[in-house]
Amino acid sequence: MSGARVGRSDDPPRAGEIYIEYTIVGAQLRAVAIDAASGVEVSVFGPAKMHRDDLGQLAVRKLERRLEPARAPTPSAKGRYA
Predict the structure, then answer these.
(1) Which long-range contacts (CB under 8 A, 24 or more apart) does 25-34 make?
(2) Average pLDDT, the chain
(3) Rounded to an integer, what distance in angstroms lies between the CA atom of residue 61 and that of residue 72?
């Protein structure tokens, strides 16, 4: 994640821009990472005392994994017909 940018609300989202939202839910901290361009979002939970940056980085990694193109299963010799 590079530095944050401040802009007008009508600025179009840039590719790769991610929004992170934190919420306390009981004794847990919830982090939601949202891809600005596609609107895809993921959430992760951790202890409320957990450092926000650590939970935010986990949410971003989960989002990046979700946005990866679908991986085709690699064929294996086991279970294939000859």
Answers:
(1) 29/55, 31/55, 31/56, 31/58, 31/59, 32/59, 33/59, 33/60, 33/62, 33/63, 34/63
(2) 83
(3) 20
Which residue's structure tokens are 């590079």? 2
Residue 7 and residue 2: Cα distance in Å, rounded?
15
**pLDDT tens readout for residues 31-80:** 999 999 899 999 999 999 999 999 999 999 999 999 988 665 666 656 65
Q: Is 64 helix (H, G, I), strand (E, B) or coil?
A: helix
How many C-beta neighbours within 10 Å does residue 72 have? 6
Instruction: Write down the pLDDT at residue 69.
Output: 80
pLDDT at position 1 is: 46
Beta bridge partners of 32: 21, 43
